[in-house]
Amino acid sequence: xxxxxxxxxxxxxxxxxxxxxxxxxxxxxxxxxxxxxxxxxxxxxxxxxxxxxxxxxxxxxxxxxxxxxxxxxxxxxxxxxxxxxxxxxxxxxxxxxxxxxxxxxxxxxxxxxxxxxxxxxxxxxxxxxxxxxxxxxxxxxxxxxxxxx
Length: 149
Known about the structure:
Blueprint: H1 2-27, H2 38-66, H3 77-99, H4 102-116, H5 122-143
Helix pairs in contact: 1-2, 4-5
């Protein structure tokens, strides 16, 4: 866990430095604001991120050095697969959504995911797939009046 804390702390530290040095000064916003200025609020948030992430990384580095643990260790391939398949699943349906309306895909997205996660009762899978799809249809067609999405 300390190794993960070290690398995530370093990553967030780099992100906060990028925000403070480039993104916020360039795109932080200007103009009239009541209360705290938008750029100042974003800068304050980035500083909080930087301080917390740096403290996490330094604390984890000290603990790793105290226990004489290595800084690098590759995870087993099964762990990588278990963390990657949901992203690949979503990516697959994003690619399909380019060609088909979302209201057609939604039952398959939800139903297949519920089945992949272990549900075997067909009526639960059917309801879990149909209810969000019907809600999406009612929202887009009848409430927002934008047609079938």
